[in-house]
Amino acid sequence: MNNRKIAFITCVNDKKAYEECLFYIENLYVPDGYEIETIEINYATSITSGYNEAIDKSDAKYKVYLHQDVLIVNKNFIKEIVSIFSKDSNIGMLGVVGSKDLHNSGIWWKSPHKVGTLYESIVKLKIVDYGNEYDIDEVLAIDGCIMITQYDVRWNEEVFDGWHFYDISQCMEFRRKGYKVCVPKQERILCLHDCGIAGTDYY
What we know:
Strands 2-1-3-11-5-12-9 form a 7-stranded mixed β-sheet. Strands 4, 6, 7, 8, 10 and 13 form a 6-stranded mixed β-sheet that branches. It has a single domain, classed as Alpha-Beta Complex (Spore Coat Polysaccharide Biosynthesis Protein SpsA, Chain A), CATH 3.90.550.10. The relative contact order is 0.21. The longest helix is centred in the first third of the chain and has 12 residues. It is built from 4 helices and 13 strands. The protein is of the alpha/beta class. 22% of the residues lie in helices and 33% in strands. This is Streptomycin biosynthesis protein StrF domain-containing protein. InterPro entries: Nucleotide-diphossugar_trans, StrF_dom.
């Protein structure tokens, strides 16, 4: 395992969107002694199988699983996430938005106890700001638009064989192994999710 390597992992079916995602990754500030790699997964049968394929390919300690329509706009992203992980070895995974409990539907954003911040572009660009109670809030679930880990836990592709609820599942897997899932307070917003209008029919 390379403790000074960060892998950025994306399942891709839209090359144009991914090219923009890559542009932002390639322009991040990389601290001295660290290196990055980008892993593009094409033709994945599910997001969990694609992410497991990336785990098998990479020796990076830190892995950033992000959607092809997520742009990391804070150039100090790497420094900030590594600093958080280095201060608490019990934190297994970070997100930018999430919830401290779950609505009985299992959909995290229906919880009244949401935390975190990001830019979001659906019809127009806006700031989604749920706030934070602490500098680092421990949560039950984070959104799958970007999920950042310092430990490898395999994704449950046997059960989650599509494109939904993999994020909630993985949060539970990390918690079962005794790791914390957290959302940090962002002095400068880390990313923009250019998601457009998406339906929830398959939820």
